[in-house]
TrEMBL record:
<feature type="domain" description="FAD-binding PCMH-type">
    <location>
        <begin position="77"/>
        <end position="278"/>
    </location>
</feature>
<dbReference type="Pfam" id="PF08031">
    <property type="entry name" value="BBE"/>
</dbReference>
<keyword id="KW-0547">Nucleotide-binding</keyword>
<dbReference type="InterPro" id="IPR006094">
    <property type="entry name" value="Oxid_FAD_bind_N"/>
</dbReference>
<keyword id="KW-1015">Disulfide bond</keyword>
<keyword id="KW-0325">Glycoprotein</keyword>
<dbReference type="InterPro" id="IPR036318">
    <property type="entry name" value="FAD-bd_PCMH-like_sf"/>
</dbReference>
<keyword id="KW-0274">FAD</keyword>
<dbReference type="InterPro" id="IPR016166">
    <property type="entry name" value="FAD-bd_PCMH"/>
</dbReference>
<dbReference type="InterPro" id="IPR016167">
    <property type="entry name" value="FAD-bd_PCMH_sub1"/>
</dbReference>
<feature type="signal peptide">
    <location>
        <begin position="1"/>
        <end position="23"/>
    </location>
</feature>
<dbReference type="GO" id="GO:0016491">
    <property type="term" value="F:oxidoreductase activity"/>
</dbReference>
<keyword id="KW-0964">Secreted</keyword>
<keyword id="KW-0732">Signal</keyword>
<dbReference type="InterPro" id="IPR016169">
    <property type="entry name" value="FAD-bd_PCMH_sub2"/>
</dbReference>
<dbReference type="InterPro" id="IPR012951">
    <property type="entry name" value="BBE"/>
</dbReference>
<protein>
    <recommendedName>
        <fullName>FAD-binding PCMH-type domain-containing protein</fullName>
    </recommendedName>
</protein>
Length: 512
């Protein structure tokens, strides 16, 4: 049953329509549009109707699908929003919040990035997408040690801007995917809350500011901009990517993985080595991809001492600028593309995909690795990326920010399955393979809870369709561990009516 407010708005728009034409009764999208247009004040230089798209608009599907990064949700059967507001001004955000609340519509906030399971543009009920891609300015501090970044900016845009502004002598430590949103990496913020108020760190309060850093900001507010800290980088960094299929230099793959587990989280803080396990010709392939903040001579000294089994040699080390290393991580060969390609917001090729995550706190034994290699060979569509922690991650208390996965974790796992052929049977098989590998890893990963990484969204670990505390705790403790209850407390204070909610949002306590 519609609320009286919705009925009144629909009747008003309907009567207006009848007086002017014989058109069909207004859609919920047109009611929403009339609501946001009618609000005052608005920015006369940026009228909201110019940035609002309903399904009747020929640009609607283009705007919607531009930031769909998973072809599983790029189809005619997926439920579509009743409208998209591609906000270009803070008043657009405020109007969207006001009218979504008035019409009892759920709000989905989208600012680019992975969103592997599509929670920023999917819902089972009527909803509006607030798309932030127009808000992507980057303003650098005078000393080039900070920058204010609007929430629609991508990491590629930040990386490119930082490198060009600072003559390649500063960088920003974040993800390897240029298309990822900038959210989460910040030292200050400007937001719009459920009441439509624009707040900064002081006015929002330190508890909400704490929650935004790693707690999933979309559970609490709409973020307008982040203030990030930039870091100095050397003139040259060194990268490498070496593979072992069966063995490398006389050392079998399993022994290389054993050694990697021993040193990856303890090696020099300037060196990062990711291990990826996949299959090739019925054999497990281990890829060791690394970056060192320094020259190749110093890197080889460290590797000879700490990881001689890998046999890294001079010809496999490539020195380049830090900004060029971003392309290297995308598997773009050096010199084959300008760094400006990281400004491309729309991927040239889309894929069907599934992602899951885990944390490992104890080295996996040789017997365990044998079992893992066996299950990978039985599920050849799945790869595992092992990302080492340690270093600075281990020095920050787990309660410093809402992100809790710090000391005690040796590495994080991303399970990845990609496929390129449409069809339910193909999708079912690839999803099943991912789940089989995930289940086989149970003995070797964190327990009570089995931890998960928020940015690798995975609806399999729990959802809150009814937005209850009990449902939310199932996935909440996996993403946030002991920080979950504090996040619930913050949520109950800043958004007691649970306006900012979605399938894996922070819930309010049951008493609410």
């Amino acid at each position: 049953m519609k609320s009286p407010t919705i009925q009144t708005l629909i009747i008003s728009v309907f009567l207006f329509t009848i007086q002017t034409s014989l058109a069909s009764p207004p859609t919920l999208g047109s009611v929403f549009t009339q609501c946001i247009i009618g609000l005052k004040p608005s920015n006369p230089c940026s009228p909201i109707q110019n940035f609002t798209y309903t399904p009747q608009n020929p640009k609607f599907l283009i705007i919607l699908n531009n930031y769909v990064r998973n072809l599983r949700y790029f189809n005619n059967t997926t439920r579509k929003p009743i409208a998209i507001v591609a906000a270009a001004d803070v008043t657009h955000i405020q109007a969207t919040i006001t009218c979504a609340k008035k019409l009892s519509l759920q709000l989905r906030i989208r600012s680019g990035g992975h969103d592997y399971d599509g929670l920023s543009y999917l819902s089972t009920v009527d909803f509006v997408v607030l798309d932030m891609f127009n808000l992507r300015s980057i303003e650098f501090g005078r000393k080039l040690d900070t920058a204010w970044v609007q929430s629609g900016a991508t990491l590629g845009e930040i990386y490119y801007g930082v490198a060009n502004k600072s003559n390649d002598l500063r960088g920003f430590p974040a993800g390897i995917c240029p298309g990822l949103g900038a959210g989460g990496h910040f030292s200050d913020a400007k937001i719009v809350d459920a009441k439509g108020r624009v707040l900064d760190r002081t006015s929002m309060g330190e508890d909400l500011f704490w929650a935004l850093r790693g707690g999933g900001a979309a559970s609490f507010c709409v973020v307008l901009a982040w203030k990030i800290k930039l870091v100095p980088v050397p003139e040259k960094v060194t990268v490498f990517n070496v593979e072992a299929v069966g063995k490398r230099g006389g050392v079998n793959t399993k022994e290389l993985v054993v050694k990697w587990q021993e040193i990856a989280d303890k090696i020099d803080n300037s060196l990062f080595i990711r291990l990826t396990l996949s299959t090739s010709n019925k054999t497990v392939k281990a890829s060791f991809m690394g970056m060192f903040l320094g020259d190749s001579s110093r890197l080889l000294e460290i590797m000879t001492k700490e990881f001689p089994e890998l046999g890294l040699n001079k010809t496999e080390c490539i020195e380049m600028k830090w900004i060029e290393s971003v392309l290297f991580w995308l598997s773009i060969p050096p010199g084959t593309a300008p760094t400006s390609v990281m400004l491309n917001r729309i991927p040239q090729k889309q894929i069907y995909l599934k992602r899951k995550s885990d944390y490992v706190q104890k080295p996996i034994s040789r017997t365990g690795l044998d079992a893992i290699f066996k299950v990978l060979l039985e599920n050849e569509n799945v790869t595992m990326a092992w990302n080492p922690y340690g270093g600075r991650m281990s020095e920050i208390p787990s309660t410093e920010t809402a992100f809790p996965h710090r000391a005690g974790n040796k590495f994080k796992i991303q399970y990845a399955a990609n496929w390129f052929v449409p069809g339910e049977e193909v999708a079912k098989e690839c999803m099943s393979q991912t789940e089989r590998v995930f289940e086989a890893m149970t003995p070797y990963v964190s327990k009570n809870p089995r931890e998960a990484f928020l940015n690798y969204r995975d609806v399999d670990i729990g959802t809150s369709l009814n937005s209850t505390y009990e449902e939310g705790k199932v996935y909440g403790v996996k993403y946030f561990k002991n920080n979950f209850e504090r996040l619930v407390s913050v949520k109950s204070r800043v958004d007691p009516d649970n306006f900012f909610r979605y399938e894996q949002s922070i819930p309010v306590p049951s008493s609410h």
